[in-house]
Amino acid sequence: MSDSLEAVAAAFVPGQVQSSTPLGNGHIHATFAVDMETEDGPRAIVLQRLNTQVFTDPDALMENMQRVARHPGVAAWVPGLLATPEGKVLLRTPERECWRAWERVPNTESFDLVENVAAAREIGRAFGAFVSGLADLPGPPLHATLPDFHDTAARLAKLEAAIAEDRVARVAEVRPEIEGLRRRASLTRALDREALPERVIHADTKANNVLFDRATGRAVAVVDLDTVMSGLLAWDFGDLVRSAGNAALEDEADLAKVSLRIDVFGALAEGWFETAGALMTPAEQASLAVGPQVMTYELAVRFLTDFLEGDRYFRIRDPAHNLRRTRVHLHLLASMENQHQEMEVALHRAAGA
Fold first, then answer.
1. Fewest Cβ atoms closer than 10 Å to its Cβ: which of 37, 65, 83, 216?
2. Phi, then psi, of 303 in degrees rounded to 5
3. H-helix or E-strand spanning residue 70
4. Nearest one of 179, 167, 228 to 201, comparing CA atoms
5. Where does the chain show beta strands of DSSP type E?
6. Which residue(s) pair with 44 in the sheet?
């Protein structure tokens, strides 16, 4: 346990740190579950050191988080932010690190791999409730913490630049992956931005960003609000399916295990429509059929770009990590293409439920 972490924890919650352990499998920040002893008894909190190379304006990020956390439509879904005695929710250390903290939701768990349709339905319900609850967020638009985050065409252009530069001499080993992505370039135009309204969305709807009550199996919290900003519902639903619908983890080495589980897809859609169905226009409902392909494609592009640039963005465990992620997403995308008709049927059923 570092002295820095102890000092940061005590700045948010005066007391003595009893233990701290890394928490979650996030790609960007460093997150810790911290147990403390205070004058009022034990406190369980989450500390997170922000990656300010990715999120270059942490003040804007925290302003977004505070606005969202205070909004009655989603307040029950969002863990409470902690502040220092001076009222700061963002703590800057002498080492120029940026930290934030919130209460740990007790007796909860999250899943990297969704194992059954009941859990899938709950995840869909949670994210649907989140976007629906933010539909009437007052005030100006939220800050774009990552501008053009889901600009798929721009992501592909960045990949092409990385191919041309070949900074770390890896292009030769990924020719099939490059061809697979180029062949599907039409997906960069698959969502009609003119026909789809912009909403306040989560923009990182991974399965493990929903917390489940261990006793009831119900979804009780939505976490990781860094990218909450304006966008399309198809992006949120699509990324949800990409993450939770896969039969394997996103870095699985055995591609035979990778596929879209259509029963899980149907359950995700049922949960989503239960809480967000009334919000959507007919065009938005129709966009949900292609959203998963767009988002799976976009992540494949991003992972391959990072691989070709020398793994500068996503956290990796080994030099081939981003390449495995790319291959998984291409395989998952092919599975979605093969099951597109079944996906449309499941969406129609969920919309009419």
1. 216
2. -65, -40
3. helix 58-70
4. 228
5. 16-22, 30-38, 41-49, 91-92, 98-103, 108-109, 199-201, 210-213, 219-222, 229-231
6. 35
Closest to 296 (Cα-Cα) out of 225, 206, 192: 206
DSSP 3-state assignment of 225?
coil
> Phi and psi at residue 77, in whole multiples of 5°?
-95, -10
Task: For CA atoms 102, 104, 108, 109, give the dihedral sign.
Answer: positive
Helix/strand/coil percent split, the chain, to 5 = 45, 15, 40
Instruction: Compute the mean pLDDT over every residue in the chain, rounded to the nearest whole number.
Output: 94
C-alpha to C-alpha distance for 131 and 137, rounded to whole angstroms: 10
Q: How far is CA 29 from CA 22, 39, 74, in A?
A: 11, 30, 23
Rounded Cα gap, residues 308 and 219, in angstroms: 37
Which pTM value belongs to this model? 0.93
How many angstroms separate the CA atoms of 341 and 289, rounded?
Answer: 9
Cα distances (Å, whole numbers) of residue 63 to 53, 69, 71: 18, 10, 13
Asked whether the beta carbons of 336 and 346 are under 8 A apart, the reply is no
In eight-state DSSP terms, residue 281 is -
How far is the C-alpha of 307 from the C-alpha of 321, rounded, in Å?
Answer: 8
What's 170's DSSP letter? -
Q: Is 200 buried (19+), middle (13-18) or exposed (0-12) by CB count in 10 A? A: buried
Cβ pair 209, 269 in contact under 8 A: no
The single residue listed with the structure tokens 């059929």 is 289
Query: Do β-strands 229-231 and 199-201 pair in parallel, antiparallel, or remain unpaired?
Result: antiparallel
CA dihedral 253→255→261→262, nearest 10 degrees, is: 150
pLDDT digits (tens, 9 = 90+) for 100-114: 999 999 999 999 999
Going by their DSSP bridges, the two strands 98-103 and 16-22 should be labelled as unpaired
- Summarize pLDDT for 198-219 with one digit per residue, the tens: 999 999 999 999 999 999 999 9
Q: Are 244 and 219 in contact (CB under 8 A)?
A: no
Residues in the chain: 353
